[in-house]
Design brief:
The protein is an alpha/beta fold and 221 residues long. It is built from seven helices and eight strands; from the N terminus they run E-H-E-H-E-H-E-H-E-E-H-E-H-E-H. The mean pLDDT is 98. The protein binds D-xylitol-5-phosphate (DX5) and zinc ion (ZN).
Length: 221
């Protein structure tokens, strides 16, 4: 069966003085997930936002809250992100001492679990967790900032992951994040990704229109 294709706008590129309008615009534009990038200034150089922001926007939308934790030792914060409204919690393989324990912690609070790998981490490293998570996030840029250019070589890992999921008959979603634009989304799509994080290419002067353009494209596949 063909996996469902999902648009996940990354809130990092939103206009924060109009956050609730921005969120409603992507929802109206057809996005099913809201991708929420949490950065700690240690695992990645920048700092973004955390639980209080997630909690306060929870009532603004019914979209799936897709929390991308770019933080070291993520197990410390799973409970709080779950309580703040996360539906899916993704942590970095590189940031966790015991990835299996993090997955169990995420499940303990009733959330879906995702695991992510940076551009330099081979797909092989994540294979032991592929049947234990709901989603693999293959970073297509170095995590830390929006607005970077997609690294095409990371798509080989998307191809390897899709082949693995198909071969093993798994339902694991494959998400890509970083540098996805309207004119290159076909590349990760053809490589086998089915959830597309889009930040700077969606949020802007016509957030609704851009979200709709991406959603319509995915719906037409
Ligand atoms: C980068 C974040 C991304 C980022 C994507 O570390 O994980 O989610 O916001 O932004 P664009 O689509 O602009 O590359
Ligand atoms: Zn992200």
């Amino acid at each position: 069966m063909k996996p469902e294709l999902i648009l996940a706008p990354s809130m990092l590129s939103a206009d924060f003085k109009n956050l609730s309008e921005e969120i409603k615009a992507v929802e109206k534009g057809g996005a099913a997930y809201l991708h929420i990038d949490v950065m700690d200034g240690v695992f990645v150089p920048s700092i973004s936002f955390g639980m209080p922001v997630m909690k306060s926007i929870r009532s603004a939308t019914d979209m799936v809250f897709d929390a991308h934790l770019m933080i070291i030792d993520p197990i410390r914060y799973i409970k709080e992100f779950a309580a703040s409204g996360a539906d899916l919690i993704t942590f970095h393989l590189e940031a966790a001492e015991d990835p299996q324990a993090v997955i169990e912690e995420i499940r303990k609070y009733g959330c879906k679990a995702g695991i992510s790998i940076k551009p330099g981490t081979p797909f092989e490293d994540v294979i032991p967790y592929m049947d234990k998570v709901d989603m693999l996030l293959v970073m297509t840029v170095e995590p830390g900032f929006g607005g970077q250019k997609m690294m095409p070589e990371t798509l080989d890992k998307v191809r390897a992951a899709r082949a693995y999921v198909t071969e093993k008959g798994l339902k694991t979603d494959i998400q890509v994040d970083g540098g996805v634009k309207y004119d290159n989304i076909r590349l990760p799509l053809e490589a086998g990704a089915n959830i597309f994080v889009v930040g700077s290419a969606v949020f802007g002067p016509d957030t609704y229109g851009e979200a709709k353009r991406f959603s319509d494209f995915l719906a037409a596949q």
